[in-house]
Amino acid sequence: EPEVTQTPSHQVTQMGQEVILRCVPISNHLYFYWYRQILGQKVEFLVSFYNNEISEKSEIFDDQFSVERPDGSNFTLKIRSTKLEDSAMYFCASSGTSPTTGELFFGEGSRLTVL
Amino acid sequence: GQQVMQIPQYQHVQEGEDFTTYCNSSTTLSNIQWYKQRPGGHPVFLIQLVKSGEVKKQKRLTFQFGEAKKNSSLHITATQTTDVGTYFCAGRAAGNKLTFGGGTRVLVKP
Q1: Among A15, A38, B57, B75, which one has the highest count of C-beta atoms within 10 angstroms of its own C-beta?
Q2: Which residues contact A105 (CB under 8 A, 6 or more apart)?
Q3: Measured between alpha carbons, how far is A114 from B11 in angstroms, rounded to an integer?
Q4: Measured between alpha carbons, how far is A56 from B97 in angstroms, rounded to an integer?
Q5: What is chain A's pLDDT, residue by residue, as a tens digit (115 residues)?
Q6: A25 with A94: CB under 8 angstroms?
Q7: Which residue among B42, B43, B99 sits closest to A45, beta carbon to beta carbon?
Q8: Which among A43, A99, A102 has the least Cβ separation from residue B43?
Q9: How far is CA A94 from CA A2, A29, A83, A90, B54, in A?
């Protein structure tokens, strides 16, 4: 069964460092998302991406965050200068159908710990 | 902005009993989805509801979408230990942003 894969599974970084989280969405999917979940809390929307551009982003997704799809398969989330409060599980998701319906397929997540 | 709220936050259930978790949106939704997240896992899609008043069943799970398309519920009958996890509703108002509720964490007492 096709799945969304994410690397790394866990990253520990120092405050102020740049972090890149990588995702390989399901191959024929067109819509890509990043969500984050602080331990034990809700799943928060960060950004959606379609046709090589951001289609929506939340207030959390400030200038420190960026996304790109550099090679047609990977979908990356970059955090330019990490803060302690960026510590969370980051989930990538993809969807193959219309952006206004259809289920999201989530990866297993990348746990980011900022010290 | 759009807010999605779920109650209860925690549900302790005796194995074999029924329970219901409720989801309310601050805005009218075009559709609502439900996801289950096992401890240490990632959200996994359960179902999508689109029509006003829609009811769908999956074995022991019954999902309902309110007439005004602003609320939804998940009812589980005869709870089993495999039902342990956090159940999230997630609603779409406009656009492709799916907003998750805070989740109901279900613990089952054998």
Answers
A1: B75
A2: A2, A3, A4, A25, A26, A29, A93, A94, A95, B45
A3: 32
A4: 7
A5: 779 999 999 999 999 999 999 999 998 898 999 999 998 889 999 999 998 899 999 999 999 999 999 887 899 999 999 999 999 999 999 998 766 678 899 999 999 999 9
A6: yes
A7: B99
A8: A43
A9: 11, 6, 27, 14, 26
Report the alpha-carbon distance of residue B26 to residue B1 in Å, rounded.
Answer: 9
**Residue B50 in contact with partner chain A when CB distance is under 8 A:** yes
In this complex, do B99 and A105 lie within 8 Å of one another by their Cβ atoms? no
Q: Is the peptide bond before A99 cis (omega within 30 degrees of 0)?
A: no
Q: Which amino acid, one-letter code, is at A93?
A: A
Give the C-alpha separation, A21 to B34, whole Å.
26
